[in-house]
Amino acid sequence: MANGSVLNVAGALAAFLGSGNVINVSNSLCLGGCLTLSGGITVAVTPGSNVSIGPNPFRNPASGSLVKSANAAVIVIQGNSRVTIGGAP
Q: What element of type H or E holds 66?
């Protein structure tokens, strides 16, 4: 997200269905540091940007996993942008 963008997700960021589901994230965008929020989601945030993630960002979390490389950011927010993820009910 960049340049004043806004992302509003009313529910979960992802839903795992069945079994053995994996979200793989591999990058080095957290070398300068990241926030770790609900569900282990790492977020690289620049000053002036905003992030809010509810308590259950994944629906059916027992059916899948988030796998990240060292220093990986799942979400990058910069340039006065905002990300809000409500979470699964």
A: strand 64-68
d(CA 85, CA 13): 7
Residue type, 52: S
Which two tokens mark 61? Answer: 């979390």
Strand 35-37 with 58-59, pairing: unpaired
The domain locations on the chain are: 6-85
Q: Which helix (H) or strand (E) holds 82?
A: strand 82-85
pTM score: 0.89
Contacts for 84 with CB less than 8 Å, ≥ 6 apart: 7, 8, 9, 51, 52, 53
Going by pLDDT thresholds of 50, 70 and 90, the confidence category of residue 87 is confident
